[in-house]
Design a protein that fits this description.
2 domains; 7-stranded parallel β-sheet
Length: about 290
């Protein structure tokens, strides 16, 4: 080959068109390849969890801002030390104090996940594996409780505009990063035997109402939805008002149960599957 032919060959080999399609990240990032990305996002966690023989999960939701009691107290002390506080600083202190009153939920989520691991370690497969969104706060606490007990736990992290990284207590090979909230929600529910909802904000509410709607309409397996902290949730959502107004049926109130301790959460879940329905089929999630 002459120099011109060699240069042309070099350009051929360097061209994105020459990359195998599955290695062409520029191609896979195109808007019209969204269906392919969604299919990959469905399959990657599914294949990994199947290979790890994870038959069922317990999903734990809750606020990212709910930290452990020691950290909550430290933040209050730091803000309390400010003199001549501005209105913004006063607001920050008031919010920190409210988080401190909820910090026991961090401990409860950690205790609950450890209890689940201890109660289910004798099963033939990996049953009732704790799964969270993989972030901080209540999610960290639940992954941490499983970690304390030497059990596997799962993290379904999500790509967000601001930086987010997984908490350090997730089983490393069971931590997944999602681009699409819809696929992440689907994976939360596919193997779920229970949803445990601790106090939280918009994200927690989004996940709660997604599951509530699917349970109300019969589009997913029958599982208990356990809301932790009735005083908190009764102020956030007045379910009885919805029933009184006729926009939901009275029977829909029975989709929700409340708990105030790690042991009570587990008793509700154990009783539901022992005396309620049998364990749902493997592919019980909404399709």
């Amino acid at each position: 080959m002459n120099e011109q032919e060699q240069e042309n060959l070099r350009q051929i080999l360097a061209s994105p068109s020459y990359l195998p399609a599955d290695q062409d990240l520029q191609l896979l990032s195109r808007d019209d390849l969204r269906p392919v990305r969604m299919q990959l996002e469905l399959l990657k966690p599914e294949l990994a969890l199947t290979e790890e023989d994870i038959a069922s999960t317990i999903v734990v939701f809750g606020g990212t801002q709910v930290v452990e009691p020691e950290e909550a107290a430290r933040r209050v002390a730091a803000l309390s030390g400010e003199k001549d506080r501005s209105p913004v600083q006063e607001r920050a202190l008031a919010r920190a104090r409210r988080i401190e009153t909820k910090s026991h939920y961090y401990t409860m989520a950690r205790d609950f996940a450890r209890l689940v691991a201890e109660e289910t370690r004798e099963t033939d497969h990996w049953e009732y594996v704790v799964v969270t969104g993989g972030g901080p706060g209540i999610m960290e606490a639940a992954n941490r409780g499983a970690y304390d007990a030497g059990a596997k736990s799962i993290g379904f992290n999500i790509t967000l505009p601001h930086e987010q990284q997984p908490n350090p207590y997730i089983t490393p090979y069971l931590c997944f990063q999602f681009r699409y909230f819809a696929l992440r929600k689907l994976h939360f529910l596919l193997r779920a035997r229970a949803l445990v909802i601790f106090p939280g904000g918009f994200g927690t509410l989004d996940e709660l109402f997604d599951a509530l709607t699917l349970r109300q309409t019969g589009r997913m397996q029958e599982i208990p939805l356990v809301m932790v902290g009735k005083e908190y949730w009764s102020r956030v959502i007045d379910f009885e008002f919805l029933a009184d107004e006729g926009v939901i049926a009275d029977a829909h109130l029975d989709l929700i149960q409340y708990a105030e301790s790690a042991e009570e959460i587990w008793r509700i879940i154990a009783a539901f599957h022992r005396h309620g329905t049998t364990l749902p089929p493997r592919n019980g999630g909404d399709s």
